[in-house]
C-alpha cells in the first residue's frame, strides 16, 4: 500500500441556485487577463444542456485524441512556426472558440455618441477578441429555460394529456464544475513537454508555465475539457485549486464565496498502487465502486502507519479523519464522482439533486419523503434517475437510487426534528442511518 494525500471537493447539487458567484469570483482572482477572456476555471452548467465547452461530454466527437496526442509527441523535434503548424495538424480535435463562446462586451459609447434620432440608441455587442461588432450566437447556459422532458412513453403521454405531463415532468438543475484534479490525470499523461504535473503532497494538478510549449494536447486529452489555452501567452492554464490560498489554510475562492454553501473541501487518503488497476476496471458500471475502493479509511491503524511511513504528517492525518469529503463519501454514502467512465478518477464528487419528490405518474402528488412513500416514490423523481446515472455512475441506476433514498430519509428525519416532532426511526434505520 502506497498512501498518498489528495485535496478533494464535494458539491451538494440540491443547494446550487445557479447564481454564478463562484464563477465570477474565480474569474476575478485567476482569469481576469487578456488571452483568457473566454476562460472559466469554474463554470456552472445548466442541466440538461450542452455544457461548456458545448458537447464536451460527447466523447465520440473527441475520439482519436489519445492517438493524436501520441503522434504529437513525435513532432516535438520541430520548433517555432513549424511546430505551431504541426500542432494544428497533429491535434485538430480541440474545441473551437465558438464551442466555448465568443466573449463580448457592449458598445456603451454608442449610448452617448449616437446622433440625434427618433429612438433611444442601444449598446450593441462587441467582441472582446476582435473588438468588432459581433452577433451572439451561443454561450454557456444558453439552455437555461429549455429544461428537459424525459417523458419516454408516447402512449402514456397521449393518455395522460401531453401538455400537462410535459410540464410536470420538465426538469433542470445546475452543475458547477472545476478541474477534477484526477488521480489518473490524462492531461498530465498527454503533455509532450512534461509541463503538467500532479503535486505529490496534495494531488493538485498544475501547469508549469516555463515548460509549457503550447501544444494543447492537454486540452484534447482532458475529457472534462478543463484545460484552457491562453491565446496571448501561448500557454495552457487551468484551475489551481487556489493552491496559494489552501497552503495558508483558507478555502478556494469558489468555496468561500459560494452563496449556497454547497462546497465541502477536505483531504482524502488513497492507495497510489491501486489507481492504475482501478482505472482499467473492465466494466464501466463497476467504475464507481472501483474508484471508491482506492480511497482509504484514515481511521484504520494500518492505513495511518502506512501514511506515516510515506511521510504524511500527523496533522494531515488528523485533517483526513475530520474531512467532510471522507464523511460524505463513506460515512454518509451520499457523494458520487462525475463521469467515472472517463477513467481519470476524478476528485470532485457530487451529492446528486433530490429535487421535489412528487409521484407525477401516479397522480397522487404525494410528498415522497413521508414515511411509507419513501421507497415507492423515489423512482418518480422530477429528475429521472437514469439521467443522473449517466452523469455519476456510468449509467448504473442502483447507486444513484441508494443515495437519493438516503437523502430523502435525511430530509424527512431532519424536518421532523426541526418541527419539534419525534423523528421517524423507521425511516432512518431503513437506510442505515439510525440515530443520525
Ligand atoms: Fe487534468 Fe482534466 Fe483531470 Fe483536471 S479534469 S486533472 S485537467 S484530466
Ligand atoms: Fe451554485 Fe454556489 Fe456557484 Fe452560486 S456560488 S452558482 S450556489 S456553486
From TrEMBL:
Keywords: 4Fe-4S, Electron transport, Iron, Iron-sulfur, Metal-binding, Repeat, Transport
Keyword flag 4Fe-4S: yes
Transmembrane intervals: none
Main subcellular location: other
Molecular function as annotated in GO: 4 iron, 4 sulfur cluster binding; electron transfer activity; metal ion binding; nitrate reductase activity
Single GO BP term: nitrate metabolic process
Any one Gene Ontology cellular component term annotated for this protein: membrane
Cofactor: [4Fe-4S] cluster; [3Fe-4S] cluster
Subcellular location: Cell envelope
Record carries keyword Membrane: no
Domain 4Fe-4S ferredoxin-type: 7-36, 170-201, 203-232
Annotated protein name in UniProt: Respiratory nitrate reductase beta subunit
Organism: Nonomuraea maritima
Amino acid at each position: 500500500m502506497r498512501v498518498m494525500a489528495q485535496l478533494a471537493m464535494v458539491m451538494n447539487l440540491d443547494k446550487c441556485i445557479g447564481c454564478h458567484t463562484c464563477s465570477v469570483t474565480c474569474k476575478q482572482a485567476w482569469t481576469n487577463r487578456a488571452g483568457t477572456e473566454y476562460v472559466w476555471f469554474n463554470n456552472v452548467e445548466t442541466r440538461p444542456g450542452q455544457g461548456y465547452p458545448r458537447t464536451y461530454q460527447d466523447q465520440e466527437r473527441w475520439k482519436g485524441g489519445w492517438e493524436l496526442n501520441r503522434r504529437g509527441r513525435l513532432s516535438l523535434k520541430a520548433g517555432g512556426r513549424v511546430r505551431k503548424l504541426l500542432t494544428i495538424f497533429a491535434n485538430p480535435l480541440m474545441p473551437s472558440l465558438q464551442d466555448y463562446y465568443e466573449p463580448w462586451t457592449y458598445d456603451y459609447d454608442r449610448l452617448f455618441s449616437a446622433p440625434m434620432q427618433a429612438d433611444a440608441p442601444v449598446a450593441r455587442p462587441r467582441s472582446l477578441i476582435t473588438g468588432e461588432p459581433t452577433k451572439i450566437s451561443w454561450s454557456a447556459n444558453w439552455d437555461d429555460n429549455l429544461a428537459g422532458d424525459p417523458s419516454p412513453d408516447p402512449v402514456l403521454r397521449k393518455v395522460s394529456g401531453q401538455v400537462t405531463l410535459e410540464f410536470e415532468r420538465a426538469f433542470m438543475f445546475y452543475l458547477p464544475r472545476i478541474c477534477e484534479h484526477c488521480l489518473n490525470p490524462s492531461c498530465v499523461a498527454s503533455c509532450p513537454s512534461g509541463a503538467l504535473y500532479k503535486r505529490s503532497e496534495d494531488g493538485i494538478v498544475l501547469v508549469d508555465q516555463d515548460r509549457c510549449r503550447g501544444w494543447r494536447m492537454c486540452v484534447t486529452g482532458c475529457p472534462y475539457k478543463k484545460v484552457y489555452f491562453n491565446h496571448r501567452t501561448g500557454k495552457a492554464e487551468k484551475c489551481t485549486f487556489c493552491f496559494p490560498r489552501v497552503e495558508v489554510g483558507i478555502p478556494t475562492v469558489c468555496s468561500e464565496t459560494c452563496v449556497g454553501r454547497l462546497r465541502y473541501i477536505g483531504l482524502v487518503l488513497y492507495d497510489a498502487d491501486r489507481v492504475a488497476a482501478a482505472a482499467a476496471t473492465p466494466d464501466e458500471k463497476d467504475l464507481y465502486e472501483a474508484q471508491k475502493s482506492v480511497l482509504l479509511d484514515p481511521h484504520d491503524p494500518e492505513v495511518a502507519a502506512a501514511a506515516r511511513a510515506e511521510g504524511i504528517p500527523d496533522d494531515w492525518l488528523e485533517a483526513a479523519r475530520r474531512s467532510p469529503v471522507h464523511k460524505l463519501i463513506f460515512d454518509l454514502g451520499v457523494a458520487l464522482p462525475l463521469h467515472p467512465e472517463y477513467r481519470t478518477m476524478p476528485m470532485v464528487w457530487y451529492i446528486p439533486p433530490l429535487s421535489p419528490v412528487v409521484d407525477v405518474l401516479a397522480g397522487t402528488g404525494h410528498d415522497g419523503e413521508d414515511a411509507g412513500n419513501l421507497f415507492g416514490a423515489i423512482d418518480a423523481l422530477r429528475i429521472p434517475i437514469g439521467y443522473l446515472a449517466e452523469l455519476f455512475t456510468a449509467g448504473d441506476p442502483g447507486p444513484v437510487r441508494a443515495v437519493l433514498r438516503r437523502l430523502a430519509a435525511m430530509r424527512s428525519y431532519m424536518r421532523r426534528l426541526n418541527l419539534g416532532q419525534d423523528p421517524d426511526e423507521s425511516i432512518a434505520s431503513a437506510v442505515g442511518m439510525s440515530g443520525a
